[in-house]
Amino acid sequence: MSARRRLGLALLLLVLSVLLVFLFSRTTAVDLGAQNQVMLDVRELEKLDAEWNANIWRARIGLDTGARALDSTLPRMQELERKLGVSLSMTRDAATARAYVRMQAALQEKQRLVGLFKGGNALLRESLAVLPPLITQMKTELTGIEGALAPSRTVLALDGALNALLADILRFNLVPDAALGARIENSLGTVLVQKAAFSPAIGESIDTLVLHTRVVLRQRPLENSLEAAIARTATADAVDRLSRQFNREFDEVLLQKQRYRLWLFAYSGVLLLLLVAGAARLLRAFRLLDVANRRLQKANDTLEQRVRERTVELEAQSAKLEQLAHHDGLTGLVNYAYLSRLLEHALIRAGRRDDTVVVMFFDLDGFKAVNDTHGHGIGDLVLQEVARRVRARLRKEDVLARLGGDEFVVMFEQVNAPEAARRIAQLTLDAIGSIDEAGGKPITISASIGISSAHGQAGAARGAAALLADADAAMYAAKQAGKSGYTVSARAQWPDMQFDKTVAR
What is the pLDDT of residue 344? Predict the structure, then answer.
């Protein structure tokens, strides 16, 4: 063979080899582990955003007023946001970058709005905590020497204005209304008119009352507008849009890899035909190429196995994230976010069937003393035992949820008489009161229970948040009445009957 022919053959073999290496590299260039991690990061960001929304709602209804709780998810969310920004290098479509920029802007705007909400919420919660005991104290003083020293007509006028003011403030906190706000201002005017007839101490209380009432009048509409603005940021939609865009990009990359594999197989077939038709002197080259093909097939089989293993791992992690998103890690009970969803669905069913949904909100009495005396480890055992014993006394279809700390909620449907709700409350009190030791330590605990209910379409229109708020308020009434008992909310709805607020011991 001439030198020119050998050179041509060498160049041909070089070109064929380079093309083979190129196709092989294109079939193994996809980092599935990195892609899976990106999708896990997006799902975690969705979960943290949902938890952030739950924290905002808890601050809204006064379950958790700490600023730290509102910001607890932010460091991890910002870290995930940065990681997703780095992951944009794995994509080629500008639409993914645009989706990321929109998500980033939505999260930044939401963080700004939550910062405004946080400051206003602290002022509002403080005023709502001060007003009821302040009014109660003033009414008590009016029955004493203050009432004896002032004209009876003035005392009665101030007492009536205080009663109207407290009721209107509580209603305004639930549903801020301009007419109701004007009525509150009128009541304040009445109170201020009577100020001169009383002692300086009563005058100072009136000034404090006016100050905190006007904080409520100012902050409640502002907080509602901030909540609406936070909802309009639509961060969940922005994260979901980015997730879909990443999925589309990664699917396209996998599809391209499959095309390269087909081209690689077709190209390998052509090489085999050329080698079979070649001269005996190319036999050794044919054998080497056959070995390369077997290695390639093994690499492809290994890659498919990795894809299957990654898929199984991703499904397991997704199931774990789903469990964590819906249940409390300590007791295994339903958490607040999932309870809200179940309660909304139950109210819809009750509206369709003209049925009743009952919510029982209870808080442990004496639990802080257990933690202080025996430590949080024993406290966790107590919470688990409370969950176990109360759950054992409920029906299979009833829902028991832990909201956090020592607060629990029971939701049950198709309980159409107040007596049934009271019986379940008593069973719950008995179950909790029967716990006398945990981890070998003697303990004494009880519970204060608030009960509320929603019936039919009217109950469905009230919504889950209002129903929980009524039960929460009834629970605090039970605590104020001496603890270790239950109170039925005056706003509870029952079919075809009237039911007054009651407290049981």
Answer: 94
- 3-class secondary structure, 200: helix
Of the candidates 336, 329, 324, 323, the residue with the CA atom closest to the CA atom of residue 54: 336
Per CATH, which fold does 336-504 belong to? Alpha-Beta Plaits (3.30.70)
Q: What is the pLDDT of residues 156-178, one digit of tens each?
A: 888 888 898 889 888 988 888 88
pTM above 0.70, yes or no: no
Q: What pLDDT does 320 receive?
A: 64
Lookup result for tokens 């709805």:
493
pLDDT of residue 313: 72
- What CATH architecture is 124-223? Up-down Bundle (1.20)
SS3 for 135? Answer: helix
Q: What is the CA radius of gyration of the chain?
A: 34
Query: What is the Cβ-side half-sphere exposure of residue 62, based on CA atoms within 13 angstroms?
Result: 17
Residue appearing with tokens 């924290």: 55
Q: Start-end ranges of CATH 3.30.70.270 in the chain?
A: 336-504
As annotated, the residues of the chain forming the CATH 1.20.1440 domain(s) are 124-223
Whole-Å CA distances, 499 to 291, 463, 481: 86, 20, 19
Q: Output the pLDDT for position 300.
A: 73
Helices (H), 233-366: 235-277, 283-326, 336-353
89 φ, ψ (degrees, to nearest 5): -65, -15
User: Going by C-beta distance under 8 Å and a sequence separation of 6 or more, which residues neighbour residue 145?
Assistant: none
Q: What is the DSSP string of 137-161?
A: HHHHHHTTHHHHHS-HHHHHHHHHH
Round to whole Å and give the CA distance between 48 and 40: 12
Confidence band for 61, pLDDT divided at 50, 70 and 90: confident
Residue 407 pairs in a beta bridge with: 363, 404
Q: Which residues contact 128 (CB under 8 A, 6 or more apart)?
A: 62, 169, 173, 216
Tell me the β-bridge partners of 334.
327, 401
Say which residue the tokens 């894809």 belong to: 307
